[in-house]
Structure formats: C-alpha cells, structure tokens
Q: What sequence folds into this?
C-alpha cells in the first residue's frame, strides 16, 4: 500500500509539473512573439502627476485589462492583449498581463470587446475541448491561433484552475465514463462504520494500470517499466510475479532483472572497493612490463594513439574513445553528431549545423518528446510564422526553450542558424522587419526609434544593420558617422537615396539620465538580479532568470547574469520570488540531488529552465550544498567519506595508499581522512614508495600491499 501511495503522490507532482503553470508559459509566449500591433488603442501619454513613483504600474479604475505604466515618471496608458488581465501585484520587471486564473478581476468589471477568430474565443486563453466523457483535450490560444493539447493519460482538463487535474476534481467531467471504470460498492460495517483508507483495483485490460478509489470516484495510476500491480500486496511488483500480465511483459521483466543482476556483478568484480551507487566508469587496469607502457597484445587495435577519438563507420553519432590505449564505443546524445575534428579530451559531439553528417550514413533512432523532435538541437518554433520569423526552439535534454534571433535576423531551419530574412523562403521579409525597400536604386534608410541601426536595401531586399561602436546612422548621407554628429532625438529624417517616406513601426526611444555611458550595464539598488541595460543611450530595465544574480563586473555585451556561487549578492537586497517546479527550487542553479545520500555524495542536480538534470562530480569529489560546488568529501558534514570512497585510512601516520583497479589513482590520508587523487599524465602510483613515478616503472597488474609514506 505504501508503494501505491508513493505512485499516487508522484503522479500528482507530475500533473503539477507539466501543467501547473500554463499561465506563465502563455505569458512567455506572448512576450516573445508579439509586437505593438496587439495594443488595440494607441498609447495615451498621461500627465506626470499620474505617477506616484518613477517606475510603477497602476490599474485603470473600472477596467480589468487597462493599466497605466510609469517609466522615469512618464505615464502611459496600456491595454493587455484580449483574454489577459492586468495584475497590479506582479514585480515591475515582470510582464503584468496574466490569465484570469492567476488574477481575479474583482470589482473592476469591464473588459475590452473580444477579438474572436475561427479557432479561439479570445486572442489568448485556455479552453476545454470535448464533452463530459472526453475530458482530456484543451486548446491554448496565442494571438488567435489555437494549439490543441491532451492531458497525460488519466487526467482531465480543469477550466477553473487552468491545469490537468484528477477527473473527479473537474466539475464538468464524468470521471467514471471518462476512465471506463466504476468503483465497486463496499459494504459498511455496523460496528465500525465505513471502511477507512483508499481502495485499489487492477485494470481488466492492463496489468500495469490500476485504479484508486477516492470517495467512490476512480483515479487511474500506472506502475513503472517492467512492474505490474499485484492485488495481493496492493503494490507494484516485478511483472514476472503477476500471472495476469501477458507473457511478453513477464518475459521482458525477467530479462531486465537478469540484466540488472549481471550489471551489479560486473560492478562488484571491477570496482570492489568503490560504492556501488556511484557507478563511476574507471579505465580497466592493463598489464604493463617494466620496459613498455603496455604490451601490444593488451592494447586495442583501434587505438592508434594513447588518448583520442575515432569515428565509427556508417554512423553520424557513434565513435570510439581511447583512454590509455583502451577503446570504448560511445554514442553522442540524440540530436548531436560526432565531430571527427575533435581533439581529446574536448567534448566530441556537436550540433548538425556545425558538423554535417556527409557520407557517414545513419544516426540513432530519434528520442522525441512532446515539444522536441530530438533530445538536443535547434528547430523551428511552432509559434513562428511568416510574419514572426525570428523565433526558434532550442531543445536540451528533450526540454524546449523558446529563443529569438538577434534583431533583424530570422531563423533558417535548413541551416539551423539565424540568417538574413531574405535567405529564408518561408519568411515574409517586409512584414517581419516592418519595412519595404522603395523603388529605385539600392540604398540605406533610417530605422526609426534607434539611430544606431539602419536598413540596407540590396536588390529590393531590406536588411537591418547596426553601426559600429561609437557611430550612428546619418540619414542625410546614408551612412554611419561619429555619433556626436547625429541628433538621435530627431524622429523624422529623410532617408538617403529615397523619394518615399520610410515606414515607422518601432516605438520611439526614450532618453534619460541613467545611461552615463553608452552600451553598458547598471545595477538596480535593492535587487540581486535586476539591472539596467543601456544600448546606445536608451535604458531598459531587465531581470536575470530566476536563480541567477546580476554581475556588476560584467562588461557589455557579455551576458551579465551568473550563478550565485560566482556572483554572491552581498549588500544588494533581495531576489525575485522563486519560480519553483516539481523538481527545482529555482529555474536555474545547482542543488543537492534527492537521489544523493551520505554514502552517495557525488550526485547533484542542475536545473535549466525548471528542468532537472542529474549529474555527478568527478571521481573522488562530493557535492557541497553550501558552496554549490564539488568538494573534498571530508569538507561536507553530511557525507560519509569512508563509505562514499570505499576506503578507510588505517591507524597510524599519514600516507598514500593504492587504489585497487586503477594504478593512475591513489588515496592520500591526512589526519585520518582519505582523498582520492590522480597522478599527473605519464605517471602511475607506486605503492612501494607511496608516490607517483613514471608509469613504465609500475606493474599495474600486480597487487602490492599499500604502505604509508613516512612523514
């Protein structure tokens, strides 16, 4: 029963992790992909008296989606996109328009008129699809375009909470008809009353699926791979122990159990003194004579040099790595290619755009996820369109992050790179850039709103270019000149080589006294992760992603955000509220893994965009949660150093001791604490002398009893 409750809790966490913050995803989709055309009315400049503070937002009385934004004391009335509500409680650095489930309208009742499309009731929103029997489908509307999704099996879309939920928690879902199961009636005892606890029932058509009955309503749960629900114990056990499972499932579970036993036996055989859980792959010790590095018979024939990489024939992503003449076949992560030009020990896998697979045949089968065609790669975003060509999707570990090309560039799915929009056949260059080249000779034209940029027309195709540092675009001469010669405050200058007026589609730049130096960063008082970026003389307030701190030492244009362990926040105030997920306390950072223990101290968790990646420290090091770095295990109070390293220092003086299984490593004992060290390249540990010597002087195949180095 305990195991079932754990599965129940895990599935709840999965539902929240996958769909618990759809408003944030929608907000990000809006912020990345939209332009000023979504504001239904032109911004209205208010009097300075409307601003109680220099930088703040205020609701417009009587409206749910209008607000006043003050920037440097200048007020501007704005309107949220159709379907979103203004939330006055968000941080100023965050986007203030959110979904109705994230902020109630309360007394402010009026909304802008809906802007429905054939697919959507509003431009933005989440809407249920299907009926009381088909409850798992829903639609996400972004700019009036509908994207249909389905909740994980067994969960239903809850229109009230904007998330996938247990079907019995969804008012307009018939849980029994949706799941195809009705909880049996359980007789009540006259003496004891109704039965206590939950009740579980295995599904008739799937031995790995079972139902949890809560208040006479069913919820569906699933056992893990190679396990099935056992009605006798009320838990998930190995499928080979459940007669109700089909033969092929029971045979697969039996094979998995045997493979696990064989793997464990090999680990014990090859690494008897090392903790089993660490699974650190050590190079197999080879017999060496006193006159040679290794006998030719013991070397792999593939290893032409001591350390290096070699491509595998007929494969784009497989390769052979040689470490001290020992060969091991490896495969790059799904979506990456092996780079034959890689020099050991640099990482040999790269994106296909950097390493095309020419004449090397096939790759491993794709491992797609709901958002990514491969685990790693750069792909066209489903949010991109002919008018919005700059958006693309980067997949890391099967998790998609929406990205945007630099200003003026569009994503080219053929090359996997940001490119000139006129080189991308699917991109409507003129609409994307908001500019059309006038008829006549080629020339350069003013980009309204930023005098450091300009349009260059060649063959009727516009490209957005930037002047070099210290220069600004002079529309009169049609070229970049010293910026002191250009009055960037003038909004309308006749373009060079043109008889037509250039279309102005960008907001007017605002100058202020914050930018004392062009192209620079400035800290925000009272904040660890907010900063001001000046591009030219135009200031913009920004915030680092959750989990990063602003680095005051960053020099423009390098990225100004870093991990707290590299950029401590001392005397600079607070950070933004955490944006935790089911697996990560912050969107980015390094944290202690829940899989780690006092005997398995080397494992830690890296969070990237709220997705956790399990990693391990280098051999002999443990993760220190106080510093968020890999450290000596004896520096970490929660780590059992002896159990973690599989070695205890003997009583007596300090000394160095043989590490069985690899003569290039050894244990060094100081004040009774062991540390695993490695000899320098070309050296091996000699137990007789207790130090590293030239490796041809050590017979790595012999078992010499380690002795302490006299101190």
A:
């Amino acid at each position: 029963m305990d195991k079932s409750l754990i599965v129940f809790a895990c599935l709840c966490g999965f539902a929240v992790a996958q769909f618990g913050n759809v408003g944030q995803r929608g907000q990000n989709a809006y912020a990345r992909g939209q332009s000023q055309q979504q504001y239904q009315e032109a911004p209205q400049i208010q009097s300075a008296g409307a601003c109680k503070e220099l930088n703040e937002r205020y609701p417009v009385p009587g409206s749910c989606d209008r607000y006043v934004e003050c920037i440097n004391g200048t007020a501007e009335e704005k309107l949220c996109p159709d379907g979103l509500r203004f939330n006055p409680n968000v941080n100023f650095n965050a986007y203030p328009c959110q979904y109705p489930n994230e902020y109630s309208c309360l007394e402010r009742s009026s909304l802008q008129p809906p802007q429905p499309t054939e697919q959507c009731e509003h431009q933005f929103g989440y809407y249920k699809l299907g009926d009381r029997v088909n409850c798992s489908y829903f639609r996400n509307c972004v700019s009036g375009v509908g994207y249909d999704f389905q909740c994980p099996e067994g969960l239903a879309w809850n229109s009230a909470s904007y998330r996938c939920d247990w079907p019995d928690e969804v008012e307009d879902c018939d849980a029994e008809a949706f799941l195809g199961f009705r909880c049996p009636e359980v007789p009540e005892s006259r003496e004891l009353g109704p039965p206590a606890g939950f009740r579980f029932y295995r599904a008739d058509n799937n031995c790995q699926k079972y139902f949890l009955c809560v208040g006479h309503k069913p919820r569906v749960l699933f056992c893990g791979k190679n396990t099935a629900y056992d009605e006798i114990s009320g838990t998930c056990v190995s499928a080979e122990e459940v007669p109700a499972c089909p033969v092929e499932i029971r045979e697969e579970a039996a094979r998995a159990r045997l493979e696990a036993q064989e793997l464990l036996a090999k680990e014990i055989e090859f690494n008897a003194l090392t903790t089993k859980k660490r699974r650190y792959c050590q190079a197999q010790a080879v017999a060496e004579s006193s006159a040679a590095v290794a006998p030719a018979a013991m070397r792999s024939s593939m290893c032409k040099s001591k350390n290096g990489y070699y491509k595998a024939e007929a494969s784009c992503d497989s390769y052979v790595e040689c470490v001290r003449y020992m060969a091991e076949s490896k495969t790059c992560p799904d979506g990456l290619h092996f780079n034959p030009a890689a020099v050991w020990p640099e990482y040999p896998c790269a994106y296909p755009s950097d390493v095309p697979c020419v004449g090397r045949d096939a790759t491993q089968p794709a491992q797609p996820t709901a958002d990514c065609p491969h685990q790693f790669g750069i792909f066209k975003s489903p949010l991109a369109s002919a008018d919005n060509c700059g958006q693309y999707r980067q997949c890391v570990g099967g998790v998609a992050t929406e990205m945007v090309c630099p200003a003026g560039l569009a994503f080219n799915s053929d090359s996997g790179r940001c490119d000139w929009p006129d080189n991308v056949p699917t991109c409507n260059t003129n609409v994307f850039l908001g500019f059309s080249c006038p008829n006549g000779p080629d020339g350069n034209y003013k980009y309204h709103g930023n005098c450091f940029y300009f349009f260059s027309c060649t063959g009727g195709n516009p490209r957005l270019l930037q002047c070099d540092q210290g220069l600004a675009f002079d529309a009169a001469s049609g070229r970049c000149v010293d910026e002191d010669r250009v009055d960037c405050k003038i909004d309308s200058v006749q373009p060079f080589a043109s008889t037509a007026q250039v279309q102005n589609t960008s907001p007017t730049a605002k100058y202020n006294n914050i930018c004392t130096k062009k192209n620079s960063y400035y800290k925000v008082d009272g904040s660890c992760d907010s900063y001001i970026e000046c591009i030219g003389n135009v200031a913009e307030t920004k915030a680092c992603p959750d989990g990063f701190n602003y680095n005051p030492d960053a020099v423009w244009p390098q990225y100004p955000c870093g991990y707290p362990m590299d950029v401590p926040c001392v005397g600079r105030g607070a950070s933004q509220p955490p944006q935790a997920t089911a697996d990560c306390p912050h969107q980015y950072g390094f944290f202690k893994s829940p899989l780690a223990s006092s005997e398995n101290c080397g494992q830690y968790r890296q969070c990237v965009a709220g997705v956790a990646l399990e990693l391990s420290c280098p051999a002999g090091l443990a993760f220190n949660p106080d510093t968020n770095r890999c450290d000596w295990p004896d520096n970490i109070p929660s780590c059992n150093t002896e159990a973690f390293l599989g070695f205890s220092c003997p009583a007596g003086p300090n000394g160095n001791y043989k590490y069985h299984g690899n003569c290039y490593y050894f244990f060094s004992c100081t004040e009774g604490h062991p540390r695993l060290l490695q000899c320098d390249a070309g050296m091996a540990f000699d137990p007789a002398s207790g130090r590293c010597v030239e490796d041809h002087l050590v017979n790595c195949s012999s078992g010499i009893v380690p002795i302490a180095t006299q101190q």
Observations:
- The first helix runs from residue 2 to 19.
- The CA atoms of residues 117 and 154 lie 31 Å apart.
- Helices lie at 2-19, 22-33, 175-179, 247-270, 429-433, 641-645.
- Residues 1-43, 273-298, 491-512, 702-711 have pLDDT under 50 and may be disordered.
